Each structure stands twice: as structure tokens, then as C-alpha cells.
């Protein structure tokens, strides 16, 4: 039976960083990714520009050269793809992990294609696959999407964008400039404080001049085929509507974590239990890397401050192997 030293679940930037570090240190490893290389980035909006500069997105000190200081999505796809292919990383793409169990210090990883065994596991699965639902009538209609790609699709349409973060604000501005009649629905009293600093004045100006109609302190009550009903401080309002972009954020797969036995905090943050000095969870040999460490606080961890997780994890694994051999 072939037993990997390390199986990494998730082939995003942090999963790739873990694979690089494992390869450099001679570990027998495998990365499993349910989609293409850096699947989450691939599903970002086609025109997206990162908040971070290119050098802060680098992994393993491999230079990331971009046209502008802050790279675009396609540049990031090229960068991480070249790292995977140039280093011949051992990665299985379009393979979904369904279940992980542990018995006698060995993990069994069951995917939709086969089964693997490993001494250690890294979960670097991110959070982009599970949107935070509105839980309102009509959310299941085909006109509603929790993901946004290209503004051309919404040209000459009445579009409701729900949310106040970067994804919602970018979508509202891009679609407005492609001819959409945009209504921006925000639960709080203002545009999100973490909106990119060069974008924030733009959206505020568009709202103030009336180009984009913003409804603050407002929640969606129901979505219908040709309109949506919202609850505002001034009462119930019905808006004519063709499409809804519900860009209210995403969350990690907590069910997967709990099925593995990872302890989560009982409060709304749902923080997983792990040691920041090793990134090892409460399950021996099971490590967390990247944004999954933040639970519902998905804004706390991103590429530039979690790329260090790879070295921390691999160093801890090497130390454990060394101690085992010497005992």
C-alpha cells in the first residue's frame, strides 16, 4: 500500500505553496484539486484586479511580474499555472475529495475517482465554493446568481446587486458602465470599509450623482420573476428587475471540517481549532492552511499573509518524522 507523507486538499495558491515546500524537502506528497489549477481564482470575475501588489502574491520567492503594480486575474492564473507546470508538481485536477477518515495514525482520503492513504493531511480548501445564502423566497430562480463574471451579460438589464464588499461594488460599477440599470442593496449604512481604496470614491460618486441607486439599511424580502421586494427604512419597495447578483460573501465547508473531527468555536465566527505555531488542528497530523483558518472571518486570511503556512506545516512534519526515527 502506497502511503503518502502528505496529501494536500485544495490546489489554490496556498495548496500549491504547500506542495512546493513538500517537494523541496523530499516528502512524498499529492495535491488534489476539484477543479482546474487555482480553481477559486479561475472563478473570479474576468476583469478582477487584486488588492495586493504582485510581490505579495508570490510564493516560494518566485517572481510575479505583472503589467501594473496590482495584477489582474488572468496574470495570476498564468503565474500559478507556470509554477505548477515548471516545477512538475504532483497534482490531480478535477478530482473531488468526498471523505477523509483516520485509523491507526493513517488517513484515508476517498475521492470521486479513487482512494489514497497518507500520514498527514493539509486542508487548503478556501471558502469560495459555498455562498452565504439570503434565505428568501425566490432565491432559487435562474435570474439569481451568487457569482459574477462579466458585465456584458447584464447590459440593458435591470440589475440588483446585493452586498457592500469588493465583489459587489466591482460588479455594480462594471455593469453600470456596460449599460445596466443598477440598484445596489446594502444591509448596513454605508459601502463596506474594506472596499479597495481606489474604487471606494468611484462608487460613492456614482451613488451621489444618481447613476447607481443605492438602498442602505435594506434587506431583500422576496425575489420574483420580474421584480424584487425590499425592506427599506422608508418601508416596503418593489423594484422592477431582470437579474439579481447576490454577492454577500462565502464561507468554508464547515460540515467537511466537523466530519473530520475538527473542533469549531461555538460562536458565530466558527473558528477552527489549530495551533498557530504548527498549523496542526486538534486532530494529530491534520493541518489547516490559508483562509480556512479564519472560519466566518474570511477577510482575515488571504494569500499574502497565509503563504507562510506552507513552511510552518512542512517544518513541523519534518520535525515529527525526525523525532519518530530517533525514538
The total strand number stands at 17
Roughly how many Å is the radius of gyration? 22 Å
Overall morphology: elongated
Order of helices and strands: EHEHHEEEEEEEHEHEEEEEEHEHH
* Low-pLDDT sequence parts: none
Count of all domains? 2
Summed up, the helix count is 8
Please outline the major beta sheet: 7 strands, mixed
CATH architecture term of the largest domain:
3-Layer(bba) Sandwich
Mean pLDDT: 94
**CATH fold-level label of the largest domain:** FAD/NAD(P)-binding domain
Structural class, by secondary structure, is: alpha/beta
Summarize the amount of helix as a percent range.
10-25%
Q: Quote the beta fraction.
A: 15-25%
- Give the oligomeric state of the chains in this entry, treating copies of one chain as homo and distinct chains as hetero: single chain
| End-to-end distance | 24 Å
- CATH-wise, what's the superfamily of the largest domain? FAD/NAD(P)-binding domain
Give the CATH level 1 class of the largest domain.
Alpha Beta
Quick take:
With 327 residues, this protein is of the alpha/beta class. Helix content is 24%, strand content 24%. Strands 1, 2, 3, 4, 5, 6 and 17 form a 7-stranded mixed β-sheet that branches. A 5-stranded parallel β-sheet has the order 8-15-9-10-11, with helices on one face.
